[in-house]
Amino acid sequence: MTGNPKIVVTGGNGQLGKELQEISSSYPQFEFYFLTREDMPIDQFELVRNYFTTLKPAYCINCAAYTAVDKAEAEKDLAFQVNGEAVGVLAAVCKQHNTKFIHISTDYVFNGEGTYPYTENFPTDPINVYGASKLEGEKDATGFNPDCIVIRTSWVYSSFGKNFVKTMLRLMDEKDEIKVVNDQIGSPTYAADLAEVILKIIDNAQLTMNKWVPGIYNFSNEGIITWYEFAVAIKEIIKCPCEVRPITTLEYPTPAKRPAYSVLDKTKIQETFGVQLKDWKESLTVCIEKIKKQQ
């Protein structure tokens, strides 16, 4: 135990939680606590409150989420419990204990009918259960704790957990040809880059508290692509002979509807916190190199 400010990270086993864990040693001025659902079920108010009363964390980063987009259509109650109600509990407890709260949200709060990058104040209109549950979480977070920071992100991948990049690497190894949707547009986010931004925001706030600017922010890597173009880039980086063919969303039906356009405007986070955005392909190359080393 040290006298350093404590940072609690929920969803410690997820993609973002693992990336935060990986870079936490670069921030020795903080004491980190990475929690799984087993450690602290965030929807159980009394348990959360007792944990915060004992630990007295200075910051809480909520990476815990129900992320199975298609499954959420059949498990609506569970999705809303984890992504909505539990976020409200956490936000309220953080306010009660003067713990600065950062919550991670998604581009899926928008309907995907846009034609230019979404700013933070663009009207929300989710088209699936997952997006609706995450929007509920945003509303509860800012409603119960107006001093919190919400970061919306898109197309998250990492060397940890399950994600598009790892799925593509596996399929390209197994098959001669794969088909990938070419009419959904967005920007990938390497979870390691998001982790870095979150800790820099906290570090700056710790040095100067007026650097803590509550509100909703967008973050992703720089660049606008389709899932097909994402897959082609993966194929090129690993120099794989597998044929990648473009298809339409109609040719690849899923239980949950996906937004056709998911590009986020990142101006606000850049100007407020001095965030530097990395190019999506540069970050993708770094991640794939890391995955190769893990094999």
Structure characterization notes:
It is a single chain. The protein has 295 residues and is α/β, with parallel strands linked by helices. It has a single domain (6-161, 188-223, 262-278), classed as NAD(P)-binding Rossmann-like Domain (Rossmann fold, 3-Layer(aba) Sandwich). Helices cover 40% and strands 17% of the residues. It is built from 9 helices and 12 strands. It has helices at residues 15-23, 45-55, 76-96, 129-144, 164-174, 191-207, 227-238, 267-273, 280-294; strands at residues 6-10, 31-35, 59-62, 100-106, 149-153, 156-157, 177-181, 185-186, 189-190, 215-219, 225-226, 243-247. The strands form 4 sheets. A 6-stranded parallel beta sheet has the order 2-1-3-4-5-10, sandwiched between helices. A two-stranded parallel sheet has the order 6-9. Helix 7 crosses helix 9. The longest helix has 21 residues, at 76-96. It is globular, with a radius of gyration of 19 Å. The two termini are 35 Å apart. The mean pLDDT is 95.
**CATH structural class:** Alpha Beta
Name the helicity range.
40-55%
Q: Report mean pLDDT, rounded to a whole number.
A: 95
CATH architecture: 3-Layer(aba) Sandwich
Structurally, how many domains make up the residues? 1
Strand content: 15-25%
Counting H and I runs of at least 4 residues, what is the number of helices?
Answer: 9
Radius of gyration: 19 Å
Structural class: alpha/beta
Largest sheet: 6 strands, parallel
- Write down the secondary-structure element order: EHEHEHEHEEHEEEHEEHEHH
What's the total count of β strands? Answer: 12
